[in-house]
Known about the structure:
heterodimer, A: alpha+beta, Mth169, Chain: A, three-stranded antiparallel sheet, 2 helices, 3 strands, elongated, B: alpha/beta, Rossmann fold, nine-stranded mixed sheet, two-stranded antiparallel ribbon, 6 helices
Amino acid sequence: MKVRVFVTPKKNVLDPQGAAVGHALEALGLLGLRATRVGKVIEIEVDASDTPEFRGQLDRLCKDLLSNPVIEDYRFELGAS
Amino acid sequence: MTIAVLQFPGSNCDQDAFHLFSSGLRLPTRYLWHKETDLGGADLVVVPGGFSYGDYLRCGAIARFSPIMGAVREFAARGGRVLGICNGFQILCEAGLLPGALIRNASLEYRCQMCELRVEASTAAFNPSTLGAVIRLPVGHGEGNYRIDEGGLARIEANHQVLLRYAANPNGSISDIAGVRNEAGNVFGMMPHPDRAFERFHPSRDGLAVCRALLASSVPAVGKLSA
Lengths: 81, 227
């Protein structure tokens, strides 16, 4: 199974990288820009099946390691590899 | 009084911290590799600066799970004193031993410069009357922008957990925060480097007074860790 974890800065947390990328997008002619946030995607391939236990384990791993709940939000998608 | 300086893959201020405590403060000091699981009776654990695990994922995110951190967590819970400098501060925040988190500098620039720091009245030993209202310590970091939610900020301010504030904020930290302690008053973290301010040839020697103040901060008696 393929797991894709998306980690993004929390909405109310300053995102200096997002702001800088937003300025560059505007400099390249993007009109009407409202917000830019820079996060990361972590792709995991694992022999597992989509069960509540597995999702619970993923939640714990996301909270403990893959994101920092003080400054980041996460979500994940499960799919066939 | 014995000092243990932790070493992670990518720590690069471990020798500076070692010399600060061994030569600067003349205390028995030794290194402790991150694979160890026992602090060997240390009275103060120093988590030094650097780029542990290449700053992969987030600064300090992976070091936090090193074997030695279990012993550090237990030591801190028993009132043992822990000091995190720069990357060490980031590791202690990631480990949940200190409140808040550190993100990319608002300028996106790595800042390597001398900073004037306002000393806060935090403990009986760490305050403006023991250290002076303003001290000077250098910083060198790309991710020193301290962040904490509103409720957390109100809590650490009410508990006098802020140790130091930048006179001129180099990184965008909320409320100019440069260093904090935990609520119990035995875990300390700061982005500025006392380990780069203690030799005669350094532009400031305020690192010595800062460490003496932290060592003198009264904490509950802690039994030597042997398990």
